[in-house]
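Me: I keep going back and forth on a fold encoding question. No explanation is needed for now; the record alone will do.

Assistant:
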Amino acid sequence: MTAPDHHHWMNRAIELARLCPVVEGAFSVGAVIVADGEEIATGYSRETDTKVHAEEAALDKLDANDTRLKSATIYSTLEPCSERATKIRLPCTDRILAAGIPVVVIAWREPSTFVEDCVGVEKLQQQGVKVIELPELADAAMSMNRHLDLS
């Protein structure tokens, strides 16, 4: 079995992030869910409504009981959120954990622009999820967010 091409799939997620309607109060993020080397779902921020996150949009396209999720990898251009402004929607880390996805690949960690201390990576790792960071693709993943304070 060949190793997954993390750069290929992250670049696909970056392409999706470029589709996001740009707004002042939110990041533009792309996500791709891959199982057995095949893209099974994609999503991007604000794809279906003004509050939907990329990972959420991708997961919403699959049945919660889809057995492929148990061996899937989700690629997200930004660290999955660990909290939401509205309590109506689950944080993306909780959605990923509930889906049973064992591997998460990100390009960059969420800065304190909107959330003081995002702990998405730590929360996933504490539950046994393998998190892979691709910092060499961080600039490309941040490029559609340059209008925001990324400090």
The chain has five helices and five strands. The chain has a mean pLDDT of 92.
